[in-house]
Amino acid sequence: MTGPAAPKDDGRDESLAERMDRNWVELLQELRVLQTGVQILAGFLLTLPFQSRFETLDDYQIRLYLATVVVAALTTATILLPVSVHRRLFRQGLKETLVASADIIAKIALAGVALLSVGTTSLIFDVTIGRTAGVIAGVGLLAVLALLLVLVPARIRRQAREEDSP
Q1: Angstrom distance (rounded) from CA 142 to CA 40
Q2: I need a labelling partner for 18 at 20 to 30 A (CA). Which of 25, 77, 127, 140 fits?
Q3: Exposure of 96 by Cβ count < 10 A (0-12 exposed, 13-18 middle, 19+ buried)?
Q4: pLDDT, tens only, 93-109
Protein backbone atom coordinates (compact mmCIF):
# COMPACT_ATOMS: atom_id res chain seq x y z
CA MET A 1 0.00 0.00 0.00
CA THR A 2 1.07 3.55 -0.46
CA GLY A 3 0.50 6.72 1.54
CA PRO A 4 -0.17 6.99 5.25
CA ALA A 5 -1.86 3.58 5.40
CA ALA A 6 1.30 1.85 4.21
CA PRO A 7 2.79 -0.35 6.92
CA LYS A 8 6.28 0.41 8.10
CA ASP A 9 8.98 -2.12 7.38
CA ASP A 10 8.27 -4.88 9.87
CA GLY A 11 11.35 -6.95 9.00
CA ARG A 12 9.47 -9.53 6.96
CA ASP A 13 11.13 -10.77 3.84
CA GLU A 14 8.13 -10.55 1.53
CA SER A 15 7.34 -8.85 -1.73
CA LEU A 16 4.52 -6.34 -2.06
CA ALA A 17 2.39 -9.06 -3.67
CA GLU A 18 3.07 -11.44 -0.77
CA ARG A 19 2.24 -8.71 1.74
CA MET A 20 -1.01 -7.91 -0.05
CA ASP A 21 -1.93 -11.62 -0.15
CA ARG A 22 -1.23 -11.91 3.59
CA ASN A 23 -3.20 -8.76 4.35
CA TRP A 24 -6.10 -10.03 2.24
CA VAL A 25 -6.19 -13.36 4.11
CA GLU A 26 -6.08 -11.54 7.46
CA LEU A 27 -8.96 -9.26 6.42
CA LEU A 28 -11.04 -12.23 5.31
CA GLN A 29 -10.48 -13.94 8.65
CA GLU A 30 -11.61 -10.81 10.49
CA LEU A 31 -14.72 -10.64 8.32
CA ARG A 32 -15.47 -14.30 9.08
CA VAL A 33 -15.46 -13.52 12.80
CA LEU A 34 -17.75 -10.53 12.24
CA GLN A 35 -20.06 -12.57 10.04
CA THR A 36 -20.61 -15.16 12.76
CA GLY A 37 -21.66 -12.51 15.27
CA VAL A 38 -23.98 -10.84 12.78
CA GLN A 39 -25.55 -14.17 11.85
CA ILE A 40 -26.25 -14.99 15.50
CA LEU A 41 -27.83 -11.60 16.21
CA ALA A 42 -29.77 -11.56 12.94
CA GLY A 43 -31.04 -15.09 13.56
CA PHE A 44 -32.21 -14.05 17.01
CA LEU A 45 -33.99 -11.00 15.57
CA LEU A 46 -35.69 -13.03 12.86
CA THR A 47 -37.29 -15.36 15.41
CA LEU A 48 -38.88 -12.57 17.46
CA PRO A 49 -41.99 -11.91 15.34
CA PHE A 50 -42.94 -15.57 15.77
CA GLN A 51 -43.04 -15.30 19.57
CA SER A 52 -46.41 -14.68 21.20
CA ARG A 53 -45.06 -11.75 23.24
CA PHE A 54 -44.08 -9.90 20.05
CA GLU A 55 -47.70 -8.76 19.67
CA THR A 56 -47.41 -6.83 22.94
CA LEU A 57 -44.62 -4.55 21.68
CA ASP A 58 -45.46 -0.86 21.48
CA ASP A 59 -44.74 1.35 18.46
CA TYR A 60 -41.29 2.40 19.75
CA GLN A 61 -40.23 -1.21 20.30
CA ILE A 62 -41.46 -2.27 16.86
CA ARG A 63 -39.60 0.63 15.21
CA LEU A 64 -36.45 -0.23 17.18
CA TYR A 65 -36.84 -3.88 16.19
CA LEU A 66 -37.29 -3.06 12.49
CA ALA A 67 -34.38 -0.60 12.51
CA THR A 68 -32.19 -3.28 14.08
CA VAL A 69 -33.26 -5.81 11.45
CA VAL A 70 -32.34 -3.31 8.72
CA VAL A 71 -28.93 -2.74 10.36
CA ALA A 72 -28.42 -6.54 10.50
CA ALA A 73 -29.26 -6.90 6.80
CA LEU A 74 -27.03 -3.98 5.77
CA THR A 75 -24.17 -5.22 7.94
CA THR A 76 -24.47 -8.68 6.39
CA ALA A 77 -24.34 -7.13 2.93
CA THR A 78 -21.32 -5.03 3.93
CA ILE A 79 -19.47 -8.09 5.19
CA LEU A 80 -20.15 -9.85 1.88
CA LEU A 81 -18.96 -6.87 -0.19
CA PRO A 82 -15.21 -7.66 -0.17
CA VAL A 83 -15.93 -11.12 -1.57
CA SER A 84 -18.05 -9.61 -4.33
CA VAL A 85 -15.38 -7.01 -5.12
CA HIS A 86 -12.73 -9.73 -5.15
CA ARG A 87 -14.74 -11.77 -7.64
CA ARG A 88 -15.06 -8.71 -9.92
CA LEU A 89 -11.36 -7.75 -9.63
CA PHE A 90 -9.88 -11.25 -9.61
CA ARG A 91 -6.71 -11.53 -11.72
CA GLN A 92 -6.78 -7.90 -12.76
CA GLY A 93 -3.66 -6.95 -10.81
CA LEU A 94 -5.58 -4.81 -8.35
CA LYS A 95 -4.79 -6.62 -5.09
CA GLU A 96 -3.47 -3.45 -3.45
CA THR A 97 -6.71 -1.63 -4.28
CA LEU A 98 -8.73 -4.63 -3.12
CA VAL A 99 -6.93 -4.77 0.24
CA ALA A 100 -7.29 -1.01 0.79
CA SER A 101 -11.01 -1.06 -0.02
CA ALA A 102 -11.62 -4.19 2.09
CA ASP A 103 -9.93 -2.42 5.01
CA ILE A 104 -12.45 0.42 4.76
CA ILE A 105 -15.33 -2.02 4.31
CA ALA A 106 -14.26 -3.98 7.41
CA LYS A 107 -14.29 -0.76 9.46
CA ILE A 108 -17.80 0.01 8.21
CA ALA A 109 -18.86 -3.55 9.07
CA LEU A 110 -17.47 -3.10 12.60
CA ALA A 111 -19.61 0.00 12.99
CA GLY A 112 -22.61 -1.98 11.74
CA VAL A 113 -21.96 -4.75 14.27
CA ALA A 114 -21.68 -2.13 17.01
CA LEU A 115 -25.02 -0.57 16.02
CA LEU A 116 -26.61 -4.00 15.74
CA SER A 117 -25.40 -4.89 19.25
CA VAL A 118 -26.65 -1.58 20.66
CA GLY A 119 -30.06 -1.95 19.01
CA THR A 120 -30.50 -5.54 20.11
CA THR A 121 -29.41 -4.82 23.69
CA SER A 122 -31.62 -1.76 23.91
CA LEU A 123 -34.62 -3.71 22.61
CA ILE A 124 -34.09 -6.58 25.05
CA PHE A 125 -33.73 -4.26 28.04
CA ASP A 126 -36.71 -2.18 26.89
CA VAL A 127 -38.98 -5.22 26.60
CA THR A 128 -37.84 -6.97 29.78
CA ILE A 129 -37.23 -4.09 32.22
CA GLY A 130 -38.58 -0.91 30.67
CA ARG A 131 -37.90 2.03 28.39
CA THR A 132 -35.47 3.81 30.70
CA ALA A 133 -33.42 0.65 31.16
CA GLY A 134 -33.43 0.10 27.38
CA VAL A 135 -32.13 3.60 26.69
CA ILE A 136 -29.50 3.37 29.43
CA ALA A 137 -28.35 -0.06 28.21
CA GLY A 138 -28.18 1.13 24.61
CA VAL A 139 -26.32 4.35 25.38
CA GLY A 140 -24.03 2.56 27.83
CA LEU A 141 -23.12 -0.14 25.33
CA LEU A 142 -22.59 2.48 22.63
CA ALA A 143 -20.15 4.29 24.92
CA VAL A 144 -18.29 1.07 25.75
CA LEU A 145 -18.09 0.08 22.08
CA ALA A 146 -16.84 3.54 21.09
CA LEU A 147 -14.16 3.17 23.73
CA LEU A 148 -13.18 -0.34 22.64
CA LEU A 149 -13.47 0.04 18.87
CA VAL A 150 -12.24 3.61 18.40
CA LEU A 151 -10.44 5.04 21.38
CA VAL A 152 -8.41 1.99 22.47
CA PRO A 153 -6.97 1.37 18.98
CA ALA A 154 -6.21 5.10 18.63
CA ARG A 155 -4.39 5.05 21.99
CA ILE A 156 -2.41 1.94 21.01
CA ARG A 157 -1.44 3.55 17.68
CA ARG A 158 -0.37 6.76 19.46
CA GLN A 159 1.73 4.80 21.97
CA ALA A 160 3.38 2.82 19.18
CA ARG A 161 4.27 6.02 17.32
CA GLU A 162 5.71 7.55 20.49
CA GLU A 163 7.86 4.46 21.05
CA ASP A 164 9.10 4.54 17.43
CA SER A 165 9.99 8.24 17.43
CA PRO A 166 13.57 9.10 18.46
Answers
A1: 19
A2: 77
A3: middle
A4: 788 888 888 899 999 99
